[in-house]
Amino acid sequence: MMMKYGSDIHASQEEKYDFIISIASGQKNIDLIKEWIHSHLKK
Predict the structure, then answer these.
(1) 3-class state of residue 13 by DSSP
(2) Cβ proximity of 23 and 32 under 8 Å
(3) Host domain of residue 34
(4) Cα–Cα dist 25/5, whole Å
(5) CA-CA distance, 29 to 39, in Å (whole number)?
(6) CA 26 → CA 2, 13, 29, 41, distances in Å?
(7) Distances (CA, A) of 15 to 4, 5, 11, 20, 35
(8) Number of structural domains found in the chain
(9) One pLDDT digit (tens) per residue for the chain, 43 residues
(10) Model-wide pTM > 0.70
C-alpha cells in the first residue's frame, strides 16, 4: 500500500523480521512502532 503512494520501508529483511517479532512478543508499544516506521520510511 505504501509503495502505491510512493513510500517504502527501508530496512534489511533481518531488521523487518526483528521488528515484527518484537511487536508480536509485546516488546514495542504503539509509540515505538510509529517511531520505527517513521525512521525507516522513505519516499
Answers:
(1) helix
(2) no
(3) 3-42
(4) 30
(5) 16
(6) 24, 20, 7, 22
(7) 22, 23, 6, 9, 14
(8) 1
(9) 455 566 788 999 999 999 999 999 999 999 999 999 999 998 7
(10) yes
